[in-house]
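Example 3.2
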Amino acid sequence: MPDRHRDPTVTARPTQEVKDAAGDALDAHGWTIAEAVIAALSWIIEDPGRAIAQLAPFRPPPKKSGRPPKKRDQSPT
């Protein structure tokens, strides 16, 4: 079992809709989201080609890197 003092966290930010639906589906099978994430990472290590191929259709779009641009003052001059 991971140790919170020894093992760093992994941060992901799914939409609330995805998180709720996944939580409900997993709960119906006696799983938590954390257990599913750890199991998925372990599956990738065990069989990367198959796991990544199966996960590919669900891969989220890449996030833009860097800070968002500053909003310019839109007030009339």
